[in-house]
Design goal:
Largest sheet: 6 strands, antiparallel
Radius of gyration: 25 Å
Oligomer: single chain
Number of domains: 3
CATH class of the largest domain: Alpha Beta
CATH architecture of the largest domain: 2-Layer Sandwich
Helix content: 25-40%
């Protein structure tokens, strides 16, 4: 679950991360009042779950309360299109009005989990304000990494080592280490998947501040964090993904034309590979899980068919707890209720596979039954 910038800053500030003075505004009037409290000037930032806001016109400096009101009114209620949103963009409902400051340096800081090392890692760079992926490709020597042993947490010597690598002055080494430690505590205690501060700025008067902040929380851990779960802004997510989440279905919309319904995340990834091997593109990642009931299968397929890009459907079920006959009845129910019936390719193996195949055969559906992934790929090509 992604957080807005203002939400991430509020959460990080509670752990001791220094942030600029800021106010959330839902109207031009509120933005003007915020700029007045900030001394007459401020930065107005559109609050959306996407990067690239500045280049898209979503971040502007206001030289007066009146200008802040004008900027806020132009942003709130609009759709902001950035390189991360796609052409459809995302709606802007609020803006963050923040104090201006004199910046000496811009740095990059993030914490995420390194799957290879199987532990959290701090990533830092002196090239702040830029896309870290671009820096890693063009100037990899500027990207510093510091793995963290989860048994002992982030250590002061690691903070000193990172600060030295960033070329921070001696007076900023301890504050920087404390800032990273605060981020790490928030990362662990809130079950975060990623915290990113870009840029982390050093001001002319020697203060480190999180000028921007991104943070996401593990969806599967939200039951631990009832308060944070309430921060979700469903308007920023794809409507199909929101509906799927509410139904307990793991669904991610993609840009292809072959809908995939699978039980198990690993099998789902392999199924998407098969689709690409066939020269097509998957329209979604969809894992109904191991114990899905008939109605959940039906709901998942109807959800998938509501994507107009889906021209073919590949069902790949390995029957265990989810028996093949249950899956088959769900498929038949969904196709019977859908307003269109794209080409259907079904691969079933495991518990009650013969019953499942019989249900499909007697349903009147035109389904291509296959036994191997190679046959599935050939059917998708056809």
């Amino acid at each position: 679950m992604k957080l807005h910038e203002y939400q991430a800053k509020q959460l990080l500030a509670a752990y001791g991360v220094p942030v600029p003075e800021n106010y959330v505004a839902s109207s031009g009037t509120e933005a003007a009042e915020a700029v007045e409290r900030l001394g007459g000037t401020g930065v107005v930032k559109a609050q959306v779950h996407a990067g690239g806001r500045g280049k898209a016109g979503g971040v502007k400096v206001a030289a007066s309360p009146a200008e802040a009101a004008q900027i806020a009114d132009s942003l709130i209620g609009s759709t902001l299109v950035t390189f991360q949103t796609g052409p459809q963009g995302v709606p802007v409902h609020q803006v963050l009005v923040e104090q201006t400051m004199n910046i000496e340096r811009e740095l990059y800081l993030s914490i995420t989990t390194d799957g290879g090392r199987r532990r959290p890692v701090v990533i830092a760079s002196a090239a702040g304000g830029m896309e870290i992926e671009e820096v890693a490709q063009t100037e990899p020597e500027k990207v510093l990494t510091e793995p963290i042993d989860p048994a002992i947490g982030f250590q002061p010597f690691q903070g000193r080592r990172l600060a030295a690598g960033l070329g921070l002055p001696p007076a900023q080494i301890r504050p920087f280490s404390a800032l990273v430690d605060a981020c790490y505590r928030a990362y662990v205690e809130k079950d975060s998947g990623m915290i990113e501060i870009n840029p982390l700025v050093l001001t002319n008067d020697g203060h480190l501040l999180a000028l921007d902040a991104k943070m996401d929380l593990d969806d599967d851990a939200l039951f631990h964090h009832k308060e944070e779960a309430g921060l979700r802004d469903a308007t920023q997510d794809d409507p199909l993904e929101v509906e799927a989440s509410e139904a307990g279905i793991a669904y991610v919309k993609l840009d292809g034309n072959v809908g995939c319904l699978v039980n198990g995340a690993g099998l789902a990834m392999a199924t998407m590979d098969i689709v690409k091997f066939a020269g097509a593109e998957p329209a979604n990642f969809l894992d109904v899980g191991g114990g899905a009931a008939e109605d959940k299968i039906s709901h998942a397929i109807l959800l998938m068919l509501s994507d107009p890009n889906v021209e073919k459907v590949l069902v790949n079920i390995f029957g265990g707890i989810l028996r093949c006959d249950i899956a088959a009845r769900g498929i038949v129910d969904a196709y019977g209720r859908a307003d269109r019936q794209p080409t259907l390719v079904v691969r079933m193996l495991g518990t009650n596979v013969d019953e499942g195949k019989q249900i499909l055969a007697e349903s009147g559906l035109t389904a291509t039954m296959v036994d191997t992934l190679e046959e599935a790929a050939a059917a998708i090509k056809g």
